[in-house]
Design goal:
The complex is a heterotrimer of chains A (about 300), B (about 450) and C (about 300). With about 300 residues, chain A is mainly α. Chain A has one domain: ABC transporter involved in vitamin B12 uptake, BtuC, CATH 1.10.3470. Chain A contains 11 helices and 4 strands, in the order ααααβββααααβααα. In chain A, the strands form 2 sheets. A two-stranded antiparallel sheet of chain A has the order 1-4. Chain A has a two-stranded antiparallel ribbon with strand order 2-3. In chain A, a hairpin with a 7-residue loop joins β2 and β3. The longest helix of chain A is centred in the N-terminal third of the chain and has 31 residues. The N and C termini of chain A lie far apart (about 55 Å). Chain B has 2 domains: about 80 residues, no CATH class; about 300 residues, no CATH class. Chain B is about 70% helix and about 5% strand. Chain B has a two-stranded antiparallel sheet. In chain B, β1 and β2 form a beta hairpin. The radius of gyration of chain B is 25 Å and the shape is globular. With about 300 residues, chain C is an alpha/beta fold. Chain C has 2 domains: about 200 residues, Rossmann fold (3-Layer(aba) Sandwich), CATH 3.40.50.300; about 80 residues, no CATH class. In chain C, the strands form 2 sheets. In chain C, strands 6-7-8-3-9-10 form a 6-stranded mixed beta sheet, sandwiched between helices. Chain C has a 4-stranded antiparallel beta sheet with strand order 2-1-4-5, with helices on one face. The longest helix of chain C has 20 residues. Chain C is globular and about 65 Å long. Classes of the chains: A mainly alpha (about 300), B mainly alpha (about 450), C alpha/beta (about 300). Chains in contact: A-B, A-C, B-C. Chains A and B meet through α2, α3, α4, β1 and α9 of A and α2, β1, α4, α10 and α17 of B. Bound molecules: adenosine-5'-triphosphate (ATP) and magnesium ion (MG). Adenosine-5'-triphosphate binds next to β2 and α1 of chain C.
Chain lengths: ~300, ~450, ~300
C-alpha cells in the first residue's frame, strides 16, 4: 500500500513533466498538422539553459531558493522560446505548402542537429546537479517503508497545474487563442480575415517551447542529471502522451501526460525496469492502431 | 554555427543599404539570444556532483553574432543579385528559404544538370558509375581503407535502394527501417552459430524473416496516416532494439554476438592458415595471402546484392504493383476509388523493403563478425532515410549519388564524430528547405504510348 | 425516351450524420442503367456526401444502398471502398480532381486497370519473369487506355505527367480513368465545374456517348443547369440534406420547391434576369453558386 502510494506520487510528478512537453506537440499538431520531432530537443535545451542559469545565479550569489527558482524559470522560458521560434522559422516555415512529409523529415534533421549542437557546445558528459530543493513530508511512517512527498514534487505539480490552467485560459479566452483555433480550421480563410497566420504559428511554437523549458527545468531538478540525449526519449514519451490524450486537444495532452507518467512508473515498479521504455512505445502503437483519435480527440472523418 | 542562424529574420529585406543593415541587425540580435546561454557559458566539471562551474566564452558569442551579421548582409546582397531572376520567375514568395531555394535552383547544380539532361546522359552516368564500382578494388590507389569505404558506401546504397521501395515508391515514411536490418543481422548470426549454416544458405532465410517481420508489424499500422505511420515505425525500431538489449539468453544483450562466421568463396575460406583438411582461397588460386582478398570478396558480394536490389526495383516499377505503389503515394483515395486494395499493396512494399534490409543485415553481420544492438539505433534509420530523400525520392541514381555524398563526404569528418552528425542534421534541414524533392526529382514514365522524341 | 430500364442503383433512406450535423437526411432514389441521373442542389446540400456513401468513403448512419449487378446484388453500405470499385464496379470522379499528378496520363489509365493486370502478372511473379501472357495483357490494357484517350482527346499528351495538364484536360482524364475500370455505374462529381463553354459541350457529347455506346448508368452531380437540362434523363434535387423533388428535368424545373430552394423564400421579388436564365438552363454557370456557402443545420 505504501509502496503503491509512493509510486502514485512519483508517477504524477513524472506525468506533470510529460504533460508540459506534450502540450507543445499537441498545439503544433493542432495548428499546422505536423509532428514537431525537434520538440524533445527544445525540452533538452530548456534543461541545459536552466542548468546554466542555476550555476550563473549561484556564482552571482543568489542562493535564496524560491527567488533563484523563479529567475531560472523565467530565463529558461525566454531563451528557450527563442530556440522554438528560430526552429520554426528556419526549418518549417519555408516548407509550408510543400509535400506532406517534408516538414517531418526537416524536423528529424533539426532534432539530430540540435542534439549534436548541444553536445558540441556543452560536451557529451552527463551533467549532475546538486539537489536544489530538498526535504519533504513523510507520511504513513510505518514499518520499514515511508511514503515521502518531497517539496520538489510539490513544486513540480503545483507549477504544472498553474501553468496548464493559465495556458488553457490563454487559449480559451483570448484573441490569440481564437486566432490559433481559426488557423486549425482553415488557414487560408483565416489569412483572408486579416489574421497574421505566420505570426500565430510562430506564437504557438514559442508557447510550446516555453512550456518545454519549464519541463526541462523540472526534469533537471527531479533527476539531477541531464545530458544532450534526454530530449529523444522524453520527446517520444510526451508525443505518446499527446496522442493518447487525443492530439490537438490541450486537456488531452495533460491527461495523456499523466497517464504515461503513471504507466511508466508503475510498470517499472511492478514489472521490469528494463522494458519501461517498451511500455511507452507499446502504448503509442496500440493507441494509434485502435484509437488514433486518442481519449479526448474528436473523431476525424477524412474529407473526400 | 553561424551559417544556420544566418537567415533568421522575418522578411526578405527591401532594397537599400539601411534596410539590409536593419535586417542583419535583427538577425544578429536573435542570434545573440540564441548564443548567449549555450555559447556564452560552458558547464565544466568533473562528474562528481561537486565543483561544477561555468566557463565563460564571450569570444564565442561575439564571433557567432558577428558572423550572423556579416552572413546576413552577404546573403541579402547575394539575393539582390538574384532578384531579377526571381522577378522573372514571377513567384515572389514570402519565405527567405523560398528565395534561397529559387536562387539555388537558378544556379547550375549537379542534380539540376542531370535532371535536365537526356535520359541517354543519365544512362551514361549510371554506366560509368557501374564501371567504377566494378573496377574499384583494382584501382591502384585503392588501399584497404578505401576498399572498406567502398563496402560501407555500397551497403548504404543497397539499404537506400531497399528503403526507396517503401518511401520513394510507396510513399510510406518508415523511420524504423533499421529494425529489419537488425532482424536480418541477428537471424544470420544465430542461424550460422546454432545451426551451422553458411552465408548463402542464411541469406534467403534472413530475408524471409525480415519480410515476415515487415508483414507482422506492417499489417496493423499501414492504414495510418503518413506521419503517424512514421512515428509508429520509429516505435517498432526502438522496441526491437530494446528487446535485443535485454533478451540475454538469445541476443547476449548489449555485449552482442561475436564469432559470426565469415563468408567463404564457394567453400574456400579466407584465412592465412586454414584449419586441417580445408584449402584456403589463396592456396586454391595459388596467390599470396592478403587480408584485402577477403575484403575485395565482400565488396563484390555487397555490390552484387545492391545490383540485385536495383534490378528488382527497376523491373517491379514497370509492373502493376509498382505502379500501384506510386499511385498510392500520389493519392490513396483515388486508388481506393479504382479498386486497389491499399493495405495489401502497401504491405507488399513494406515486406519487400524489409526483405532487402534483411539481406543487408546478413551481409553486415558476416562482414563485421560481430553485432550488437548499438549498431541498430534510430540514427541509422535516419541516415538511410536521408539518403533516399536527398537522392530524390524514387530515384535510383539519386540514391547512389546521395550515399556517396553523405557517407563519403562525412567520412572525412570521421575524427570529429559530433561535427559529422551536426553537419548531417543541418544538411537534412537544408536539403528539405532548398530541394524538398531531392537532388534528382525527375521521373520517367514506366511505359510510353509514343516512342520518345516522336512528336506527340 | 424509351421506358426506364430496370434500376441499377437503389438508395433507400440514406442518412449521414457528422456529429450534430445531418448532411443527408432520409434520401431515397433509384438510378437506372443506360440513363443519366443528375443530383442537383445548392452548395452544402449533401450531394457529395451521397456519392461518398455510395462509393464507400463514408459508411452511412442509416440506409441501404444496393447495386443491382449482372451477377447479383451488392449491398454497398457494407462493403469496403476499394471492393465497391473492384467487385460492384462503381467508378467515380472527385469534385476536386484527384489524379496521380506525378505519373503520366497513360500510367494513370493503367493504374485504373490494376486488378486485371495484377491477375495477368501472376501477382507480379510472372511479370518479374517477363512472361508472355503478361506482356500480352499489358498490351491490351494499353489498347483499352488508348481507346479512352482517343475519346477524351488526350492521346497526344499520353506521356506527360497528369499534373501538368490544363484543368479541362485533367477533368477529362479523370473520366477516362474511371471508364478504364470498366464500370457498371459511373459517378461524376461536378464534371463541368470550371470548364468553358466549348469544353462543356464536348463533355455532354462524351457523357451521352458513354451512356449510349457503353450502356452504363451515369450518376451526375452538377451545378451547371444547362448541362443538367440538356443531358440528364432523371433529376434528383437535394436541399439541406433532404430530397425535395425528383423527376424528369422538365418536371423538376417547374417544381415550386426547387425554385424556392434555389432562389430563396421571397418568390415574389423580382429576380435578376441572369439568375432566372440560369435556372431555365440558358445560362452558363450554375445559379446555386450565387447563394454562398450554406450552413446546413
Ligand atoms: N467529413 C465531413 N465531416 C464533417 N462534415 C462534413 C463532412 N463531409 C461533408 N460534411 C458536411 O456535410 C454537408 C454537405 O456537404 P457536401 O459536400 O455533401 O455538399 P455538396 O452538396 O456536395 O456541396 P457542394 O455543391 O458545395 O459540393 C456540408 O455542410 C459539409 O460541411
Ligand atoms: Mg460537393
Amino acid at each position: 500500500m505504501e509502496y503503491f502510494l509512493q509510486q502514485l506520487i512519483n508517477g504524477v510528478t513524472l506525468g506533470a513533466i510529460y504533460g508540459l512537453i506534450a502540450i507543445g506537440y499537441t498545439m503544433v499538431y493542432g495548428i499546422i498538422g505536423m509532428i514537431n520531432f525537434a520538440h524533445g530537443e527544445i525540452f533538452m535545451i530548456g534543461a541545459f539553459i536552466s542548468f546554466i542559469a542555476f550555476l550563473l545565479l549561484g556564482a552571482l550569489g543568489i542562493t535564496f531558493v524560491p527567488l533563484a527558482l523563479l529567475l531560472v524559470l523565467l530565463l529558461a522560458m525566454v531563451f528557450t522560446s527563442v530556440y522554438g521560434w528560430t526552429v520554426e522559422r528556419l526549418a518549417y516555415r519555408p516548407l509550408r505548402g510543400s509535400f506532406r512529409l517534408a516538414p517531418l523529415i526537416s524536423a528529424i534533421g533539426m532534432s539530430i542537429f540540435l542534439q549534436n549542437y548541444v553536445q558540441v557546445l556543452q560536451g557529451a558528459r552527463v551533467k549532475p546537479l546538486q539537489p536544489v530543493v530538498t526535504g519533504g513530508f513523510q507520511m504513513f511512517k510505518g514499518d520499514g517503508f515511508a511514503v515521502s512527498f518531497s517539496y520538489l514534487q510539490i513544486v513540480i505539480i503545483l507549477v504544472t497545474v498553474v501553468l496548464m490552467a493559465s495556458f488553457s485560459l490563454l487559449i480559451g479566452r483570448t484573441a490569440l487563442g481564437r486566432a490559433q483555433r481559426a488557423c486549425e480550421q482553415d488557414r487560408v480563410m483565416t489569412a483572408l480575415l486579416g489574421i497574421d497566420v505566420d505570426r500565430t504559428i510562430s506564437t504557438t511554437f514559442v508557447m510550446g517551447a516555453a512550456l518545454a523549458a519549464v519541463a526541462g527545468l523540472m526534469f533537471m531538478l527531479y533527476y539531477g542529471v541531464i545530458d544532450f540525449y534526454i530530449g529523444f526519449l522524453a520527446g517520444i514519451k510526451a508525443f505518446t502522451a499527446a496522442v493518447l490524450g487525443g492530439i490537438g486537444s490541450l486537456p488531452g495532452a495533460m491527461l495523456g501526460g499523466l497517464l504515461i507518467g503513471l504507466i511508466e512508473t508503475f510498470w517499472s515498479a511492478y514489472f521490469s525496469i528494463e522494458y519501461k521504455d517498451v511500455a511507452a512505445y507499446s502504448i503509442l502503437v496500440l493507441v494509434l492502431i485502435f484509437r488514433p483519435t486518442g481519449l479526448l480527440g474528436k473523431p476525424e472523418i477524412e474529407k473526400v | 554555427m553561424a551559417a544556420e542562424t544566418a537567415d533568421t529574420p522575418q522578411h526578405p529585406p527591401q532594397d537599400g543599404i539601411a534596410a539590409i543593415l536593419k535586417d542583419a541587425g535583427i538577425a544578429a540580435l536573435i542570434s545573440l539570444a540564441l548564443a548567449l546561454p549555450l555559447f556564452g557559458f560552458r558547464i565544466v566539471g568533473f562528474g562528481s556532483g561537486r565543483g561544477l562551474a561555468l566557463e565563460e566564452r564571450w569570444d564565442w558569442v561575439v564571433t557567432a553574432v558577428l558572423a550572423v551579421f556579416a552572413g546576413r548582409i552577404a546573403l541579402n546582397l547575394w539575393l539582390r543579385r538574384f532578384r531579377a531572376v526571381l522577378a522573372i520567375g514571377g513567384r515572389v514568395g514570402d519565405g527567405v528559404g523560398d528565395k534561397i531555394g529559387q536562387a539555388v535552383a537558378a544556379a547550375p547544380r549537379l542534380g539540376r544538370i542531370l535532371q535536365a539532361a537526356k535520359p541517354a546522359f543519365r544512362i551514361a552516368v549510371a554506366g560509368a558509375l557501374l564501371a567504377v564500382a566494378l573496377a574499384w578494388p583494382a584501382f591502384p590507389f585503392v588501399d584497404r581503407y578505401l576498399l572498406d569505404l567502398g563496402v560501407i558506401v555500397l551497403t548504404y546504397v543497397m539499404l537506400g535502394w531497399g528503403l526507396n521501395i517503401v518511401v520513394g515508391l510507396a510513399g510510406l515514411l518508415d523511420l524504423g527501417y533499421v529494425a529489419f536490418y537488425a532482424v536480418g543481422a541477428y537471424s544470420y548470426a544465430l542461424l550460422a552459430l546454432h545451426f551451422d549454416l553458411g552465408f548463402w544458405e542464411c541469406l534467403p532465410l534472413a530475408g524471409a524473416f525480415a519480410a515476415f517481420f515487415g508483414i507482422v508489424l506492417g499489417f496493423p499500422v499501414l492504414r495510418l496516416r503518413g506521419d503517424y505511420l512514421a512515428i509508429v515505425t520509429l516505435g517498432f525500431g526502438e522496441i526491437i532494439r530494446i528487446i535485443l538489449i535485454n533478451w540475454y539468453p538469445v541476443t547476449n544483450g548489449p555485449n552482442g554476438i561475436s564469432g559470426i562466421p565469415r563468408p567463404s568463396f564457394f567453400g574456400l575460406p579466407f584465412a592465412a592458415d586454414p584449419p586441417e583438411g580445408t584449402v584456403a582461397f589463396h592456396q586454391f588460386f595459388g596467390l599470396e595471402y592478403a587480408s584485402t582478398q577477403r575484403i575485395a570478396f565482400l565488396y563484390y558480394v555487397i555490390l552484387a546484392l545492391a545490383l540485385v536490389t536495383n534490378l528488382f526495383t527497376l523491373r517491379i516499377r514497370r509492373l502493376p504493383v509498382g505502379r500501384a505503389w506510386e499511385a498510392l503515394r500520389e493519392d490513396e483515395i483515388a486508388c481506393r476509388s479504382l479498386g486497389i486494395n491499399p493495405r495489401n499493396t502497401k504491405l507488399t512494399a513494406f515486406a519487400i523493403g524489409a526483405m532487402f534490409a534483411g539481406f543487408g543485415g546478413s551481409f553486415f553481420a558476416t562482414r563485421q563478425g560481430f553485432i550488437s544492438p548499438e549498431s541498430f539505433s534510430f540514427i541509422e534509420s535516419a541516415i538511410i532515410l536521408a539518403i533516399v530523400v536527398l537522392g530524390g525520392m524514387g530515384s535510383q541514381l539519386g540514391v547512389v549519388l546521395a550515399a556517396v555524398l553523405l557517407i563519403g563526404v562525412t567520412e572525412f569528418f570521421r575524427e570529429l564524430e559530433q561535427f559529422r552528425m551536426l553537419a548531417f542534421g543541418a544538411g537534412m534541414v537544408a536539403i528539405m528547405v532548398w530541394r524538398p524533392r531531392g537532388l534528382l526529382a525527375h521521373r520517367d514514365p514506366t511505359i510510353r504510348l509514343h516512342a520518345r522524341g516522336e512528336k506527340a | 425516351m424509351p421506358a426506364p430500364d430496370r434500376p441499377l442503383l437503389t438508395v433507400e433512406h440514406l442518412t449521414m450524420r457528422f456529429g450534430g450535423l445531418v448532411a443527408v437526411h432520409d434520401v431515397s432514389f433509384t438510378a437506372a442503367g443506360r440513363r443519366i441521373t443528375a443530383i442537383i442542389g445548392p452548395n452544402g446540400a449533401g450531394k457529395t456526401t451521397v456519392f461518398n456513401c455510395i462509393t464507400g468513403f463514408y459508411s452511412p448512419t442509416v440506409g441501404r444502398i444496393v447495386l443491382h449487378g449482372g451477377r447479383g446484388d451488392f449491398l454497398l453500405e457494407r462493403m469496403e471502398g476499394y471492393l465497391i470499385a473492384q467487385k460492384a464496379r462503381v467508378a467515380r470522379t472527385f469534385q476536386n480532381i484527384r489524379l496521380f499528378p506525378r505519373m503520366s496520363v497513360l500510367e494513370n489509365l493503367l493504374v485504373a486497370q490494376h486488378n486485371a493486370l495484377m491477375r495477368a502478372s501472376g501477382m507480379s511473379v510472372l511479370g518479374l519473369l517477363g512472361a508472355a501472357g503478361f506482356r500480352h495483357a499489358e498490351r491490351e490494357a494499353v489498347d483499352h487506355a488508348r481507346y479512352w484517350l482517343d475519346r477524351t482527346a488526350l492521346a497526344d499528351v499520353a506521356d506527360i505527367d497528369a499534373g501538368t495538364l490544363p484543368y479541362g484536360a485533367q477533368r477529362r482524364l479523370e473520366i477516362a480513368r474511371a471508364m478504364c475500370t470498366r464500370p457498371a455505374l459511373l459517378c461524376l462529381d461536378e464534371p463541368a465545374a470550371g470548364l468553358n463553354h466549348a469544353e462543356s459541350r464536348d463533355l455532354n457529347h462524351l457523357l451521352r456517348f458513354i451512356r449510349d455506346e457503353h450502356e452504363i448508368g451515369v450518376l451526375l452531380i452538377e451545378h451547371d443547369m444547362s448541362v443538367v437540362m440538356e443531358i440528364s434523363d432523371h433529376v434528383v434535387v437535394l436541399d439541406y440534406g433532404r430530397k425535395i423533388a425528383e423527376g424528369s428535368p422538365e418536371a423538376v424545373r417547374h417544381s415550386p420547391d426547387v425554385i424556392r430552394a434555389y432562389l430563396g423564400e421571397e418568390e415574389g421579388e423580382a429576380l435578376p434576369p441572369e439568375v432566372t436564365a440560369d435556372l431555365k438552363g440558358e445560362g452558363g454557370a450554375g445559379a446555386a453558386h450565387e447563394r454562398g456557402p450554406a450552413e446546413t443545420q
